Amino acid sequence: MDAENILATVVFLLLEELQQITRHRRVILLRLIQDHTRPLYCRINLSVPVLDRFFNDDDTRPNFRLSRESVNMLLNHLKEDRRHCWGATIEVLVFAFWLASGASYRVVSRVFAIPHSTVHCIVQRVTEEVAAIRHQVIHLPRTPEDLHIVSHGFTELARHRAFLKAAGATDCCHVCIKPSSGPDGQCYRSRKLVPSIILQAVCDHQGRFIDTCVGWPGSVHDSRVLRNSPLYRQAISPPPGRFILAHGGYPCLQHPLPFITPYKRPVQCVGALRFNSHHSRARCIIERAFGMMKTRFRAIFLQTQEVHHTFVPHVITACAILHNICLGVGDVVAPEDEPEDDVQDEGEAGLEAGSGALWRDRLSAEVSALEEVPLDHDYC
């Protein structure tokens, strides 16, 4: 009886391996049939390990830091019909591999067995194409129902009903760059003396970016970036009666853009301490969003970018777009990066004219008067 079981197991394994070989040959045949109209130099080369694993339905995350669903969603958003022989799928894979690895163009060309100059053109072109769909993927809540869902999510994050009017959380993130030559090079050095470019972002209760502003040099204060951002200048969101959560480095405003910040340290009042605690619980979602994006694209955010500093904002915008696409299909990574310390300086005094301190005091009174909301939040 044991011999029969062993024989049956061996036969089953042999049949399974035969089926895999058959599927592999079928995929190769289909690719060859689809590519017969293309010149030989730009046909899909399945002898390249990266492409072989992708087209044989293996896990794409080790090579591209994106799930297969995320790659397909990105392709659906781009909807580009390549007229120059290179297929959209290959170009997106080259671009995603470059983002995930942070490798030089020369290394990527060796991985995909394509010319170095072609890799450069693909990365530049796909980055611009992804950045061009920004308003399709990164946008403010479009309906009152969407805004209500976001506000309710922040209520659960803060664990208090006083934050039912929260419509987003904002912060800034520094991306290291190669020092710029010329007299303006020192302008890019942050308070940590590292050359960087600033990404200002607003996210919803799930960590999805709803507004971004990128490109300011690292030496610029967060409040100045805010003052010159379209979000502040246009003041189209959030609607009246709602506010955005921000850290203590921003001014507390009621108009033109409602910003609610925590009380400055040191805090003596128990009510202010309680308000700061609930405020921090809700606002930390923006730090988590940055952490998820930095974890997925560690080579971009945790290493110095070798590309020209004028191209870095396009790369950062593309990363933010891919972050939203991944969250939309359930492709979530746990953040590994530690959040930065809150900046506690006063920022630019010019923003204090529309102070929202009275509004914050009312919210603090509500926090002291109302009970907490015992709800657990699902980040996904």
TrEMBL record:
<dbReference type="Pfam" id="PF13359">
    <property type="entry name" value="DDE_Tnp_4"/>
</dbReference>
<keyword id="KW-0539">Nucleus</keyword>
<keyword id="KW-0540">Nuclease</keyword>
<dbReference type="GO" id="GO:0046872">
    <property type="term" value="F:metal ion binding"/>
</dbReference>
<keyword id="KW-0479">Metal-binding</keyword>
<dbReference type="GO" id="GO:0016787">
    <property type="term" value="F:hydrolase activity"/>
</dbReference>
<protein>
    <recommendedName>
        <fullName>DDE Tnp4 domain-containing protein</fullName>
    </recommendedName>
</protein>
<comment type="similarity">
    <text>Belongs to the HARBI1 family.</text>
</comment>
<keyword id="KW-0378">Hydrolase</keyword>
<feature type="domain" description="DDE Tnp4">
    <location>
        <begin position="171"/>
        <end position="324"/>
    </location>
</feature>
<dbReference type="GO" id="GO:0004518">
    <property type="term" value="F:nuclease activity"/>
</dbReference>
<dbReference type="InterPro" id="IPR045249">
    <property type="entry name" value="HARBI1-like"/>
</dbReference>
<dbReference type="GO" id="GO:0005634">
    <property type="term" value="C:nucleus"/>
</dbReference>
<dbReference type="InterPro" id="IPR027806">
    <property type="entry name" value="HARBI1_dom"/>
</dbReference>
